Amino acid sequence: MATAGNQSAQLNWGVFSKAVELKQRLLFVLGALVIYRIGTHIPLPGIDVTVWNEIYNQKAGGILDMFNMFAGGALERMSIFSLNIMPYISASIIMQLASSMVPSLEAIKKEGEVGRIKINQYTRYLTVLLACIQAWGLAAGLEGMSGASGSAVIDPGMFFRVSTVITIVGGTVFLMWLGEQITQRGIGNGTSLLIYAGIVAGLPRAVASLLELTREGQFNPLILLGMCIMVVVVIVFIVYIERAQRRVPVQYPRRQVGQNSMASAQMSHLPLKLNTAGVIPPIFASSLLLLPMTLVGFAGAEGSDIVSTIARHLQHGQPVYMIMYALLIAFFCFFYTAVVFNPKENAEMLKKYGGFVPGIRPGQQTAEYLDFVLTRLTVLGAGYIILICLLPEFLISKYALPFYFGGTSLLIIVSVTMDTMSQVQGHLVAHQYEGMIRKSRLRSRR
Fold first, then answer.
1. Contact indicator for 386, 326 with CB cutoff of 8 Å
2. What is the signed CA dihedral for 39, 42, 45, 50, rounded to 10 degrees?
3. 321, 406 in Cβ contact below 8 A?
4. pLDDT, tens digit, for every residue of 358-415?
5. CB 268 within 8 A of CB 353
6. Which of 230, 242, 293 is nearest to 271 (CA)?
7. Residue 135, Cβ neighbours under 10 Å: how many?
8. Least C-beta-crowded within 10 Å: which of 230, 247, 340, 432?
9. pTM of whole model > 0.90?
10. Torsion 337-342-344-349 (CA) sign
């Protein structure tokens, strides 16, 4: 048994060592993430870093901390990547909504690969526009901020605003390009991996800070133990739900093979995931909630009673924030599921190849049945994501617990890790099959 296990381990390691393309992809992802992390430590020109640290510590909490978490600490350091990939995510939301509502964009979307390239190009243009608007608001807000040591901007004026806009927009466009390169030349979704890297990068400091608070007696050790147990339970629950799927049975009739033989009927299934939308809904919902509040915070509009009231109600743990967050997550769950899976197209595809769901007529009835099943799954999936994302918010509201790992960040980390590992496994399996085919060819030649 030990010998067989060693041989199996050697075989697996041999497969991995021979997968040159996979290693190149992994090294490319690692190098890209290292470049991203270096960029989060390069401050904006014209910023007094000491004064900005004082200002950030005064304004820390709520929406600002959440944005900084998604930015990988770039906002706290006011780096060239302060906006991170968020303008690109906002642009993607707008373009996906527009391509479903505007007839001309919907026609472009149906053009296949050419249409997809055009939509992506429009998304890039919109990203630049949104980044310019947000960067200008950020620059204007910074000029009006001052701490105990003076102003946050060393030399305020038009030159500072223009240079800040150019620098931040350049950093955002670079991250957009870097994310696309990771998707094409690396492993996994580039945008999700950049957000993932930013969240994970702040984990060691958050854990050290929590342990320090516990050591000083400001945090109950029993509550800390309960938090650790809760995180483990939530991770197990996320893995279980992300793996869950409804397998719709599909039967293919007997068909003729050659002149005198018939292939037997085949039974297959159409897998429908419980959470078809993945981590997109909480990312989109967080992006939409962060965008207006970030502009309000940096525009220095806290003096207005209306704006102050809105800002207060959109803080973490507040009922209005949780209701809006839940509604946005539910909306994007249904919207993105409709984008990813079209019941009518899948029903037509099954009909084209002779497949049918037992007891359901091919064509329109199959499309209606798939839509019915997918709707029920999406309701459960949306409820699951809302529960995961709002659980820490309830605890923050009731017990004022300092959660770094909120539901959104935890869901992103687990889901992106699972997706990346499944893609790595897929590359390994494909390489192993290629090796088996080569060996069979060599044996047949002998």
1. yes
2. 140
3. no
4. 888 888 888 888 889 999 999 999 999 998 888 777 766 665 555 555 677 788 888 8
5. no
6. 242
7. 24
8. 247
9. no
10. negative
